[in-house]
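Sequence of MFS transporter (Kitasatospora indigofera).
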Amino acid sequence: MPLALLALAIGAFGIGTTEFVIMGLLPQVAGDFGVSIPTAGWLVTGYALGVLIGAPLMTALGTRVSRKRMLMLLMGLFIAGNLLSAVAPVFGVMIAGRLVASLAHGAFFGIGAVVAADLVAPAKKAGAIALMFTGLTVANVVGVPLGTWIGQAAGWRTTFFVVAALGVVGLAGIARLVPEIPRPEGVRLRHELAAFRNVQVLLAMGMTVLGFGGVFAAITYISPMMTEVAGFADSSVTWLLVLFGLGMVGGNLLGGKLADRALMPLLYVTLGSLALVLALFTVTAHNRFAAAVTITLIGALGFAAVPPLQKRVLDQAAGAPTLASAVNIGAFNLGNALAALIGGMVISAGFGWTAPNWVGAALAASALLLALVSGALERRGTAHPVADHRDRTATGAAPALHH
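Predicted 3D structure, token representation.
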């Protein structure tokens, strides 16, 4: 694999760390600024909203810039946002720093996925995308626990300085290792927007929202579920999240390897298995060992779907994939936010701590249904490409993204 993929993975590691590490630092941040923990929770919610807005916005703004230069600009934005968070004198400035950093998130992964796919042979595209996303999954195993420990030992501001330094390493790596890949001639924002007229692109994004909604419906409430139902001590939750992260890493790499061979069958298996495992979690949550195994499986199955889903969007929006790829990253965050909201609603309604697992199972099953519809449409040949032959000729569609 090209060294440029390592630079992209380092950037992904930094972005993944800054997204999730705040959850372990909320009490410290809340105490420092004199706000309640629910108020400090806006640092999480605000980041997710920033990803949703920033993915299409930053990608659209970058349609006239080379992909390498845009990746460098996005890493610069990420560094600035984390430095602003690190020095924030008041809570409002801290939120602003989080928003600035989040604007880079969706566009970085979206454009990075396109670049990663362009760096390798057609038969290795999903594996290349998976390698870049490994940075995000490893962040949950290494970056988040380490960042939390640094914050507890040296203050939360130190964590954000360290994350900003990671951004500098990622920026230098991109500048040095990522080649200048020319954009297809004549591609403009209207061509990028045309991808959203393709029913297969929309179905893939629906799978992303529902599939990842299934994962995070359960994982968002893992702490109270494991302490109140399984009987784990509070201190054990960190290690359970590490198991979830290890599952993410393994599933992501395996999904990348298998997606290049049988993309749609892989989606059927992972989404169907995810729905089943989430449903079983309502039972296994009552046993410590079974719960730990289930959490690992949820991470593995959920992230085994990442490379095929992202590659599916790239393939179906082949003439102008950048915006669609970035919006699909926003779809992951939309799924997280919606699932957390619905999971919280069923808990508040009195259905118990394991009720979000049923929500997750229903969402994953819905994603499987969309995958089956997508596959059926493809077999029947009724799902037409976004543009006709004349449009593809005009936009200079990249043949490397066709299969």
